[in-house]
């Protein structure tokens, strides 16, 4: 029923990397600029295409472990408190994804200096050492760069500082690779050109790689963790929505692939929350009107982030319409019932069900009868799909048990890997 084409890996990875930097103007495009610098150094170094793909992907995700805005901003400037924390979390997020294992180790060490590598007797010929040194240098350059000033007024100062760190902070060979291009104005102008995304998209080493559906599911789980783990309060929300949506799909007779699409849409439905400030997500009481207006933005950004990925059109709609209502009273598109297909209707109900049943900072989870009467009232008013609500009511125990089991597992995983860990 819902066949989609193969998914463009290059665009998907670029899009996700961009989402990591959307929260603050000072962060904008940080990951893409670092990936650009790494790519230019790779071209000079003439590395194998497999290595280029690995280094480029690691660069695009290198700060994925910095969850809070405060930490992200501190890393972009030089006021960081502990550079190992986000590197270690990034490693933990990626290490179990079999096709990103090497990237995970590179990310783990992307702040390690050459001096430290030398002490542990590691050589630059090892991929992990080389990759992490490339990212370390590229990241350093971007931290020195003031995006609001003319780049050509800053380039010689940046070059001088990088050269002064050659041999101790960075291996001399890595500095040489950088210097090959750093003397060209074109290198710097491209770095800050408005269409860096398009430049990377045209040049990117993942250009001909297509992602199969299993990899998409795995990547959506990675991003689900990045979205949910920003706060202990939301640590299990998307996993709950994902499980609820896929069970409803199964009951409705969706094919295996369509159920997996619902799962992906559930994992990514709140990806736009990456633009929402931490204090709003963590607020222990109900949001004020002004804060609520800020919060509303998240679902537009879910759409904004996902819309450019070829092959993801349907999932984008399912994920982005979860706050629409069939009578047109939802947001941000104010769509009407006939514009909202079955997948999006499922996501709407799955999101409401999960949100009502789970504990929030300002209230406990609602009891079954309360959830049921809330959903029924919404259906009676013509806001959400009555058939889907009937399914939830008829299978309440099954859905509730599976959702809460998956949320318990996710919380355990979160606590085990992140919350209690002292890096
Ligand atoms: Fe970093
Ligand atoms: Fe960084
Ligand atoms: Fe939402």
What do you see in this structure?
The protein is an all-alpha fold. It folds into two domains: 204 residues, Orthogonal Bundle (Hypothetical protein af1432); 208 residues, Hypothetical protein af1432 (Orthogonal Bundle), CATH 1.10.3210. 63% of the residues lie in helices and 1% in strands. It is built from 22 helices and two strands. It has a two-stranded antiparallel sheet with strand order 1-2. The longest helix is centred in the C-terminal third of the chain and has 24 residues. The model has no long low-confidence stretch (mean pLDDT 91). The structure holds fe (ii) ion (FE2) (3 copies). The site of one fe (ii) ion has 5 residues, from helix 17.
Gross morphology is: elongated
Poorly predicted ranges (pLDDT <50, ≥5 residues)? Answer: none
Described by strand count, sense and barrel closure, the largest sheet is: 2 strands, antiparallel
Count of distinct structural domains: 2
Bound molecules: fe (ii) ion
- CATH homologous superfamily designation of the largest domain: Hypothetical protein af1432
- Helix-strand topology string: EHHHHHHHHHHHHEHHHHHHHHHH
CATH topology name of the largest domain, in short, is: Hypothetical protein af1432
This entry's quaternary arrangement is: single chain
The overall strand count is: 2
Mean pLDDT: 91
Strand order of the largest sheet: 1-2
**CATH architecture classification name of the largest domain:** Orthogonal Bundle
Q: What portion of the residues fall into strands of 2 or more residues?
A: under 5%
Cα radius of gyration in angstroms: 23 Å
Rounded to the nearest angstrom, the distance between the terminal CA atoms is: 48 Å
The CATH class of the largest domain is identified as Mainly Alpha
Number of helices: 22
**What structural class results from the helix and strand content?**
mainly alpha
């Amino acid at each position: 029923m819902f066949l989609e084409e193969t998914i463009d890996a290059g665009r998907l990875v670029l899009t996700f990397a961009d989402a990591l930097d959307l929260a603050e103007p000072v962060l904008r495009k940080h990951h893409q600029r670092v990936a650009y610098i790494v790519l230019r150094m790779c071209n000079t170094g003439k590395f194998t295409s497999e290595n280029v793909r690995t280094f480029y992907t690691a660069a695009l995700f290198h700060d994925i472990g910095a969850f809070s805005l405060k930490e992200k901003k501190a890393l972009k400037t030089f006021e960081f408190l502990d550079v190992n924390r986000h590197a270690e979390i990034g490693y933990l997020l990626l290490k179990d994804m079999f096709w990103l294992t090497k990237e995970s180790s590179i990310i783990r060490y992307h702040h390690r200096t050459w001096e430290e590598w030398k002490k542990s007797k590691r050589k630059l010929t090892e991929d992990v050492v080389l990759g992490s040194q490339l990212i370390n240098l590229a990241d350093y350059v971007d931290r020195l760069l003031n995006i609001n000033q003319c780049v050509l007024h800053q380039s010689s100062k940046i070059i001088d500082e990088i050269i002064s760190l050659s041999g101790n902070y960075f291996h001399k060979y890595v500095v040489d690779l950088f210097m090959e291009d750093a003397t060209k104005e074109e290198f710097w102008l491209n770095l800050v050109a408005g269409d860096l995304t398009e430049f990377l998209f045209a040049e990117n080493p993942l250009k001909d790689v297509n992602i199969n559906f299993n990899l998409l599911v795995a990547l959506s789980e990675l991003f689900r963790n990045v979205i949910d783990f920003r706060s202990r309060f939301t640590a299990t929300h998307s996993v709950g929505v994902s499980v609820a949506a896929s069970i409803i799909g199964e009951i409705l007779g969706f094919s295996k692939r369509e159920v997996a699409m619902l799962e992906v849409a559930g994992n990514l439905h709140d990806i736009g929350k990456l633009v929402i400030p931490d204090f709003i997500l963590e607020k222990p009481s109900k949001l004020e009107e002004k804060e609520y207006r800020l919060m509303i933005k998240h679902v537009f950004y879910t759409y904004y982030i996902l819309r450019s990925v070829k092959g993801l059109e349907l999932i984008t709609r399912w994920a982005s319409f979860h706050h629409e209502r069939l009578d047109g009273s939802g947001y941000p598109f104010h769509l009407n019932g006939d514009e909202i297909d079955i997948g999006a209707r499922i996501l709407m109900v799955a999101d409401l069900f999960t949100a009502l049943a789970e504990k929030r900072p300002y209230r406990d989870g609602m009891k079954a009868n309360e959830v049921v009467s809330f959903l029924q009232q919404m259906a009676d008013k013509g806001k959400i799909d009555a058939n889907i609500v009937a399914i939830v009511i008829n299978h309440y125990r099954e859905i509730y048990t599976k959702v809460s089991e998956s949320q318990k597992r996710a919380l355990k995983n979160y606590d085990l890997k992140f919350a209690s860990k002292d890096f």
